[in-house]
Specification:
Arc Repressor Mutant, subunit A, Jelly Rolls, 2 domains, six-stranded antiparallel beta sheet, 12 helices, about 45% helix, alpha+beta, single chain
């Protein structure tokens, strides 16, 4: 295994200075749960961490794609797409990406009295199932928002915001049913049209390289039947529709983050940034670089 230590294309990484963490641990507003660092590693081939003496913080790792592993107390665990786990502080551990299908992960190092209780409830490989009311992209979007704040100007209010907001982020992992019901009340979910379900599935998997076969299989349809049904309802071929929402989401990322063109391309599931740029220009009328320049980015 080739082990990477210097980062990954498209990664995001934010670490608070030691004195900021100490201040937060002594702030009554934030002392129960404090963020040390946070990041996003896409397709992290060669990712390997070995801490024989453990780590000073608890660690949440959320796999949104691919596969990886971790070893704790001599036991190895496999982690797949839409699964997450929490590692305890001060205990030896290892974790690494699968060689053939390396994971894409969001992660948080955190500490504070509440961290112990969080670990006790999430001390295994936990699955987040994809269904008609799942909120995968809402959760991912919230990760990105917190990273935006951490990457911005370092000031007391921004640190407080991140540390108070991290409670909500953990609530989305601890109380998945309630998190979904907050947006999709059960009493209002008696009927959902095919096209709503299909576009919801696309949005929940917007960062993946979905194929027509993937989409059809999710609904138990043949590719031809799914294509005809989707086209009849929308006037668009499924892949064309998916590409359009990917590009519109990319435009939002350019407007609301400091991500570079290749980073956004990878985040939206495009391995080829040149193809992404051509598609972006086709949909938006301008190339990504020009779009960012017009936004003052």
């Amino acid at each position: 295994m080739v082990r990477i230590k210097d980062g990954f294309v498209g990664q995001r990484l934010a670490v608070y200075p030691f004195f900021i963490i100490e201040q937060a641990l002594n702030n009554p507003l934030t002392s129960d749960l404090v963020v040390h660092s946070m990041g996003y590693f896409p397709k992290a081939a060669g990712h390997y961490i070995n801490r024989p003496n453990g780590c000073g913080e608890y660690i949440l790792i959320y796999c949104i794609n691919g596969k990886g592993f971790f070893k704790l107390s001599g036991v190895q665990h496999t982690v797949c797409e839409n699964q997450f786990f929490v590692l305890p502080a001060e205990e030896p551990h290892q974790y690494w990406a699968d060689e053939e299908s390396p994971w894409s992960i969001y992660w948080v190092h955190f500490k504070g009295p509440k961290a112990v209780s969080i670990f006790k409830q999430l001390n295994d490989v936990n699955q987040i199932s994809l269904n008609d009311h799942s909120r995968m992209q809402d959760r991912i979007g919230f990760f990105d928002e917190l990273l935006n704040i951490m990457e911005s100007e370092l000031k007391e209010s921004s640190v407080d915001y991140v540390n108070m907001s991290i409670n909500h982020l953990f609530a989305t992992f601890l109380y998945i049913d309630e998190y979904r019901a907050a947006k999709y009340p059960v009493q209002k979910a008696n009927y959902t049209s095919f096209i709503s379900l299909a576009t919801h599935y696309m949005n929940e998997n917007i960062e993946k390289h979905l194929t027509l076969e993937d989409m059809a299989a999710h609904f138990g349809y043949s590719k031809s039947y799914f294509y005809r049904l989707f086209y009849k309802e929308t006037g668009y071929a499924p892949i064309t529709y998916l590409q359009n929402i990917k590009i519109k989401r990319a435009a939002e990322l350019f407007a609301n983050t400091s991500l570079k063109v290749n980073q956004v391309a990878l985040k939206m599931g495009f391995d080829d940034p040149y193809y992404f740029s051509r598609l972006f220009k086709k949909v938006m009328g301008v190339a990504p670089v020009s779009y960012k320049k017009a936004l003052g980015k």
